[in-house]
């Protein structure tokens, strides 16, 4: 039985990017600081999605999604640097960028949905007080948009 975060499409796509990035770094022979930065940023994205999904307060969930968002953008920037340094051509980088773009879009939508719950504007909340965990999972929230 999968854990809640494993059912999130955004988490699954972030894991897809980790696999893509590993293969890319090997084939492009990325070395040094750029490789290290891409490794850390790509891994940080799903780790923060998972950790945030396990938090009880909405504010904590948002904070971890924000960190995941920043890491995803950092991953995209690493790919831009690899292109600028001619370590790889656009055709090789573009598939990874598309995965990151999807992850970023999904993170933004999840964050917006959580903000709506926090503000009490989401009619799908099951328990009344905004800011108090109402027993929902991010999986349920992701499925609602």
Query: What integer is the average pLDDT?
Result: 88
The largest β sheet comes out as: none
Would you tell me which CATH topology applies? de novo design (two linked rop proteins)
Per CATH, the architecture is Up-down Bundle
CATH superfamily: 23S rRNA-intervening sequence
- What is the overall silhouette? elongated
| Secondary-structure element pattern, one letter each | HHHHH
User: What fraction of residues sit in β-strands?
Assistant: under 5%
Number of helix segments?
5
Task: Give Rg in angstroms.
Answer: 17 Å
Which CATH top level class fits?
Mainly Alpha
What's the number of extended β-strand segments?
A: 0
Work out the helicity level: over 70%
- Total of domains: 1
| CA distance, first residue to last residue | 24 Å
Low-pLDDT stretches: 125-135
- The SS-based structural class is mainly alpha
């Amino acid at each position: 039985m999968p854990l809640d975060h494993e059912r999130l499409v955004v988490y699954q796509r972030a894991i897809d990017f980790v696999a893509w990035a590993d293969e890319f770094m090997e084939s492009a022979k990325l070395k040094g600081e750029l490789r290290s930065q891409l490794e850390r940023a790509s891994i940080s994205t799903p780790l923060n999605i998972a950790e945030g999904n396990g938090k009880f307060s909405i504010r904590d969930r948002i904070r971890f999604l924000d960190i995941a968002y920043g890491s995803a953008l950092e991953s995209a920037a690493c790919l831009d640097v690899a292109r600028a340094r001619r370590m790889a051509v656009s055709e090789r980088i573009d598939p990874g960028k598309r995965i990151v773009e999807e992850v970023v879009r999904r993170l933004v939508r999840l964050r917006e949905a959580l903000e709506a719950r926090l503000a009490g504007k989401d009619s799908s909340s099951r328990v009344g007080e905004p800011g108090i965990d109402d027993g929902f999972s991010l999986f349920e929230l992701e499925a609602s948009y």
